[in-house]
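Shipment paperwork, digital attachment
Item: protein structure file
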Amino acid sequence: MQAYIGIIRSFGYLCSVLLVCLGLYFVIAPDTALMGTSHQIDKLPLVLGGRYFFFGAMLAGAIYLSDSRVTAFLLAGFAFMGFFDAVVYLGADPIPHLSVGNLSLIAAIYFYSLIKKETT
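Attachment content:
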């Protein structure tokens, strides 16, 4: 059973590495990445909608499960996404992204403080 868990964990790490590489691909060569992943520009709003829905569901699940570590980690990731998007939109309107980044960061700090209390 332990070997089975190790295989699944290794597969999860591999998926994480692939997703990070895919993200870098889109940052470094967006047009090529769009073609290479079969994305269509006119469908991107739907893709983003699906991703936001998924992020919200993941966060609701972490809160429901009362796991402060996972919730803090997710919120820190959402803060990073908000700040990253704000940098992307510096020439346009970064304020909505900065707002999400800041709110997520504040919430992540709150849940991180709960971890400290839970372990002492």
